[in-house]
Amino acid sequence: MSSSIFHRGPALAGPQADGETLESVHQLATACERCDLYRNATQVVFGEGSPNASVILVGEQPGDKEDLAGRPFVGPAGHKLDICLAEAGIDRSQCYLTNAVKHFKFEERGKRRLHAKPNSGEIQRCAYWLAAEIRIVKPRLVVAMGATALASLLGRNVRVTRDRGKLFATPLGFPVLVTVHPSFLLRLPDPEEAAREQARFVDDLRKALPFFPAGPVLEGTGS
Ligand code: SF4
Question: Of 71, 102, 105, 128, which alpha carbon lies 20 to 30 A from 23's?
Answer without folding.
Answer: 105
